[in-house]
Structure formats: C-alpha cells, structure tokens
Write a structure and sequence with these properties.
Layout (H helix, E strand, L loop, with lengths): L1 H15 L3 H23 L2 H17 L10 H12 L1
Length: 84
C-alpha cells in the first residue's frame, strides 16, 4: 500500500513539475476510463475526445496546484466532469 502512495506522490510531483513523462503515465493509467466517462457525459465520440484533451491541457496549465491534491484520480475525474 505504501508503494502505491509513493508512486502516486511521485506522479503528482512529476505533474506539478511539468514532466511530459508524468502526463504520459497519467494518460496511460486513466485515459481509457476518462474517455469512457466523457463519452457517457457528452454522448459523442468527438466531444469526448475533445473533453479529455481539454482536461489534459487544463492540468498542464494548473499543474502547480496538483501538489496539494490527495486523491489524484478523484481530482482528475471531477475536473473531467466540469470540462465535459
């Protein structure tokens, strides 16, 4: 369990620092689930793709605030709901 926490903390730190590899890892971990969620919200494939893309652009823009996030998955899905 501590390893997962350390891994998520390392990921958050990488996102905060703007490391491309951290964003790629986040996409690899959550991308398919984010797309499925966006598809349910928007009802259209293109709109869902746009929502996920805008989500990641938003995460890049606000990356410094990610350091204080304790539940990265919850934060990202909540942000997707607002975006979609």
């Amino acid at each position: 369990m501590a390893e997962a926490s350390a891994s998520e903390e390392s990921l958050r730190n990488g996102l905060r620092d703007g490391r491309e590899s951290a964003f790629a890892e986040l996409y690899d971990r959550l991308g398919p689930a984010l797309f499925r969620t966006a598809l349910r919200i928007t009802g259209g494939r293109e709109e869902a793709e746009d929502a996920v893309q805008e989500l990641f652009a938003s995460l890049v823009r606000s990356r410094r605030s990610l350091a204080g996030v304790t539940n990265l998955r919850g934060y990202v899905f909540a942000a997707l709901r607002r975006t979609a």
